[in-house]
Amino acid sequence: MVAYGRPAASLPWPWSRAIRHRYPIASTIAAGAICAVVAACIGLGGTASASAADHSLPSDLAVAPAPADVTPTLSRFLGAWAHGAWDWILPHVLVVEAVDASERAQVVSALGDAAELGIARGSGRVTGWIAGDVLMIELGPGSSVVYHIAGDSLRGTYTSARGYSTVTLVRASLPEVAGVPATVPGAVPGVTVRIPMTEPGSGGQRLTLEATLYRPPSDGPHPVLVFNHGSTGGGRVAPSVTLRASRQAPFFVARGFAVLAPMRRGRGASEGAHQEHEGTCDPGILGAGLARAIEDVDAAMAYLRAQPWVDAQRMLVGGQSRGGLLSVAYAAARPNAARAVINFAGGWTSDRCDAAGTSFNQTTFAAAGARTRVPMLWLYAEEDGYYGATWIRRYHEGFARAGGVATFRLFHALGGDGHRLVDHADVWRDAADEFLRGLNLALR
Prior knowledge:
2 domains; alpha/beta; single chain; 16 strands; eight-stranded mixed β-sheet; Rossmann fold; Lipocalin; 28% strand; eight-stranded antiparallel barrel
């Protein structure tokens, strides 16, 4: 499959030989936000879809032999690097076509498709600089991409004042990169559905929520996972962006589940106002937003119970970040509505609120633990950009002390933002399979 876009015009990036230190992770980076920023800064990717045959790497793509005055330290960057995706969402190919003794590198950078982020494949030529084990491409004031080489691996970090995104590439041949898929493998098709809802307290005003539905090929009845999305990251992901759970759905569909990924009010193409306030630690404001989100999940669950292909006795709720905490709180607020909960890196605020003495996360988890005995799977990773491992453990400890039942896994650091564990099924697959088997849910 031909994968990547035609070369864009040469990009007018300034460059610098100074390697910048990584900026601190912003406490409100949302899922996929930095991937979108990578694409925007690099100037790659469009919005119109095209056939694979219409989009290729540059026709004159070539890797020049290293000049005689180029050291082995520089020349080892030469060649093609592929088989990776920014934060496991946005496919990436890098080809270092030439290097010179002044430590300058000519680079072709290509991005693939990420429909969830509104990014289409594209490529362009840029200039980078090499210093020791690092290749750096500066994108402008305060933002850069740095690639660290280690044998046949190239680990990239995109850094800006907003946060960072990571990718790991491995050495490949030029013929090989021409066939690298421009989409993350394993995707399953989803369809957009509209969920009817009556606005609480409005005197009967009707509205609809947007949702993406993934179904197995058989008629059912199927167990269902309602997958709840996270925040906007303080506005870093536009509220109008639809989050489709396209990276998680294949795992569950392959095991016989349907997956419904609803957008809450005011998010994506859902009607109503977005009132899940961010950037505050006020428990009253945060609690009101959570209560409103629970109403949205009510609408999604009611929609599912009306579908003939749904097994209403095998309905799970889960989600990422705010969606993870929401799922835990929902099981407590709506007894018997869900068979189980899967919480990926759940929390409603960053741990800055915990450090400030207003631990909305810990308090909410503890309250839920006192009200429900629904089995849960909690999946977190170290080096989470929202909350540190100490706070993650405290969240679970508070939940368990209150009587909550959860299988808790805190995975080792992933080499990037642990908050993106949800996109790395190879890490949590075995834990999820074991949990589902324990619920006597049939696996394919």
